[in-house]
């Protein structure tokens, strides 16, 4: 029996697919890279932008023929898209050959759904999970080991679907994280450990027992062994001087900081509910550069947020010019049903969003060329 997992979205999903892979192999499935050979096909989906969802619909739809030829193949769709009840129901209705539709919190019970499918199609969406549940992983990212330190997000940036599909912030206990890190190090196969969370800087806020991100970083660095430590993602509103200091002073911590700005304009940042200003963002960058001269700073930007004017977009261009990031991701704003921004008046048309994103990407290219020649 063979399985294949098709993963969309962020590193969190990549890591969760490692959990699914563990469960599949424990059940006796072997990995294949061909959908046609698989007895179990899993789509671990992402809901962040419309494009991500469209790709899933297209790829799931394309399995109709395959399922006709091999009706015993089990097809499962899980992750952030199917955490939304409406989308889950839409998939069940539109693709009658899909056997299992579950949300983000159901993954640890994946074995149950596979066994239950004999009795009929499975649909279940839990609304909460335990970030400390202890399903092992089949690590698949070479010499990098992902370690989840928290789930969910409390920030409710007005454009973003994540808080709706990943729930509220829940941190894992320091003890369990350290135990996992010690195990990873003792295996001797991993050179790098990357901590994952939607907003790693708010690690521990929900535990109320003194845990926080800088303390966690320090404790991880104390684990004996030869490894490098990295993390993503940092929210600018929560990146403290203490964290900057720890990154600067610990040799084990890589000096890569992904710090999504999203926009360079204060009115738009406010509408996005980002809780910092352009000035505050630049201030953090200045502090990072001062304390960590070799820092590699990267960022994310959204263009064409509702009501964004040409001048406000120019503020984003200027921020990128000013900071000269070591890399940026630029996205066209994509309205997500159920979020505040999707309801806002003044949605920008696709063509204009595309024009702006191309300008930003062009600028980014020029900056990277310039940096290469420096
Ligand atoms: N938790 C992380 C990022 C999560 S999503 C953070 O807060 O930075 C990754 C990136 O996708 C975001 O930084 C943002 O730039 C982009 N993104 C999120 N929602 C989007 C939307 N509705 N349209 C376009 N891009 C979006
Ligand atoms: Fe989304 Fe904002 Fe949370 Fe990041 S911080 S996951 S952009 S709501
Ligand atoms: Fe996508 Fe879910 Fe990550 S929406 S970006 S896979 S948290």
Description:
39% of the residues lie in helices and 17% in strands. With 374 residues, the chain is of the alpha/beta class. It has three domains: 2-124, Methylthiotransferase, N-terminal domain (Rossmann fold), CATH 3.40.50.12160; 141-254, Transcription Regulator spoIIAA, CATH 3.30.750.210; 257-374, Transcription Regulator spoIIAA (2-Layer Sandwich), CATH 3.30.750.200. The strands form four sheets. The chain has a six-stranded parallel beta sheet, sandwiched between helices. Strands 7-10-11 form a three-stranded parallel beta sheet, sandwiched between helices. Helix 4 (85-94) links the parallel strand 4 and strand 5 (100-102). The longest helix has 24 residues, at 350-373. The chain is globular and about 60 Å long. The mean pLDDT is 96. Residues 153, 155-157, 160, 162-163, 198-199, 235 line the site of iron/sulfur cluster. FE3-S4 cluster binds at residues 9-10, 12-13, 46-48, 80, 161-162, 165-166.
């Amino acid at each position: 029996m063979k399985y294949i997992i098709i993963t969309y979205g962020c590193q969190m999903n990549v890591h969760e697919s490692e959990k699914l892979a563990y469960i599949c192999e424990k059940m006796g499935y072997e990995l294949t890279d061909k959908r046609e050979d698989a007895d179990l096909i899993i789509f671990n989906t992402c809901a962040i932008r419309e494009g991500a969802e469209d790709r899933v619909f297209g790829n799931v739809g394309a399995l109709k023929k395959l399922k006709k030829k091999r009706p015993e193949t089990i097809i499962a769709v899980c992750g952030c898209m199917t955490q939304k009840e409406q989308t889950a129901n839409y998939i069940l209705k539109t693709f009658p050959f899909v056997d299992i539709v579950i949300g983000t919190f159901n993954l640890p019970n994946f074995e149950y759904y596979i066994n239950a499918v004999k009795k009929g199609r499975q649909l279940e969406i839990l609304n909460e999970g335990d970030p400390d549940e202890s399903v092992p992983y089949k690590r698949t990212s070479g010499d990098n080991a992902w370690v989840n330190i928290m789930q969910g997000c409390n920030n409710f940036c007005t454009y973003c679907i994540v808080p709706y599909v990943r729930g509220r912030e829940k941190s894992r206990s320091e003890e369990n994280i350290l135990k996992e890190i010690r195990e990873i190090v003792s295996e001797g196969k991993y050179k790098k450990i990357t901590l994952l969370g939607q907003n790693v800087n708010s690690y521990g806020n929900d535990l109320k027992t003194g845990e926080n991100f800088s303390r966690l970083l320090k404790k991880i660095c104390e684990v004996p062994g030869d490894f490098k430590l990295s993390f993503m993602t940092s929210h600018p509103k929560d990146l403290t001087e203490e964290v900057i200091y720890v990154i600067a002073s610990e040799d084990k911590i890589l000096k890569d900081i992904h710090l999504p700005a999203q926009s360079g304009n204060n009115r738009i940042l406010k509408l996005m509910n980002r809780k910092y200003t352009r000035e505050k963002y630049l201030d953090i960058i200045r502090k990072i550069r001062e304390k960590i001269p070799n820092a590699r700073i990267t960022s994310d930007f959204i263009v064409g947020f509702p009501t964004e004017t040409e001048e406000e977009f120019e503020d984003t261009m200027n921020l990128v010019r000013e900071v000269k990031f070591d890399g940026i991701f630029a996205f066209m704003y994509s309205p997500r049903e159920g979020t505040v921004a999707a309801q806002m008046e003044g949605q920008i048309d696709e063509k204009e969003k595309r024009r702006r994103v191309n300008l930003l990407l062009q600028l980014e290219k020029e900056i990277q060329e310039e940096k290469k020649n420096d």
